[in-house]
């Protein structure tokens, strides 16, 4: 038996410090199993090159829990170590055997490049024992250390090639002696490792997940089954994108488009990041573009280290390239679906429109491509879809304003805004739907990006004014009658600032139309959405314009009425009906309107 001190190279002190800055001690199991996988992959590589003779036997990793003796054992049948290698790799902290092996066998599939993962076991252990036997014809070796620089090493008895690491769990870490705790860790970090892993005599992993296979080898059912494996009980995804690139970076994976119909169903952090099939994190916002955080699936890149940090992700050039690549792949896939089967694309729009709009707002490169497949649904009964260019073509004659801009008329609530929609359609206008949580921001953003387009909500003004062409409206009323109507409509409306105008509209148009100025309404909407910069707008009183249609015959009757009280009640009811159409008649005002209407019918 020999004794000695573990040698720490001074230039490796900082990597050691970083290595142990784990937020969760459970990482120890991932690190040690990753090392066991490496050892197994090494022996396979050597065997393929003829450097390991004979049968390899069953290559597997076993996790053994002994609650009574307070130990966890990670056992592999990999390459093993000689006494000299134990001294070299365990006693000299941060000397990476994986790095050395990779240099010699560049095509080997090795997870760890660090040489420090082994020492993570000391975070949860009073003592760590290693019993290992090399594939070389040399005796087995026993090594033990209690977390101090001193260690013991001696010859041992071990029949089979491979390494057993025995962790003697300390009092502070006894949670890891619970079977369910270990199962959860294995399921989180090791479910797709490339070597079979057994716990309680059950294999807990799928060594060949679909992302390591070629798309030509897979069926649609394979992709659906894998999605169900990742997200049990979830609805079948709309479609998926298989990622596979080996230059200028290595990346594989599958991204799924889930069904998202309602804004409250949105869940981020559903994409899992792996490095050589080892789980790293599900916080991938620096790798995946922000707008694609709504996707589900997996990304695997050996170019991203296991001990990934936010600062690393933000500064690494490969990460930026991966981000750009994923953006392009998603845009290409959406364009492909649109061109190949537009009907199927439109049927999915309710679910994928959120992704597309979010991407168009946040990624200019995506916007350039998305202009070709972004669609807007008509608010009419035929529910037809238009691309931006199609909408422009359809509205060229009627929906250009005095500045030669196309006016996109839209509705946020086809039911409540039905009267306004019908009035606009009667003039030949095309109204499209913008009803999702991102649409207010999308409209503001696109007005800055699309120089020849302006958006106007269908109830933002009277129909005659929706397209500003400087047309003068003629009224049948005299100036005296006009002034009289304006005076009658000076109403005290709680929490609402009302501006009154009298115009000569079509006699078929409603007698009074309530509209909310487009920009003021947008500010109110942004304020309601929250945020310290916009909260001020949410508390501002509602501002409306009451447009009195002087050409409606009802006003000839009202103006001739000599009963002042009746005249005032009629005017107030007409105003209330207009407010009701905008959802602005509430509480006491609504109660008064009902009572007044009943009284007038007596």
TrEMBL record:
It comes from the Bacteria. PROSITE patterns: HSP90. Keywords: ATP-binding, Chaperone, Cytoplasm, Nucleotide-binding, Stress response. CDD domains: HATPase_Hsp90-like (cd16927). ATP binds at residues 31, 35, 76, 81, 163, 310. Gene3D superfamilies: 3.30.230.80, 3.40.50.11260, Heat shock protein 90, C-terminal domain (1.20.120.790), Histidine kinase-like ATPase, C-terminal domain (3.30.565.10). GO terms for molecular function: ATP binding; ATP hydrolysis activity; ATP-dependent protein folding chaperone; unfolded protein binding. Belongs to the heat shock protein 90 family. This is Chaperone protein HtpG.
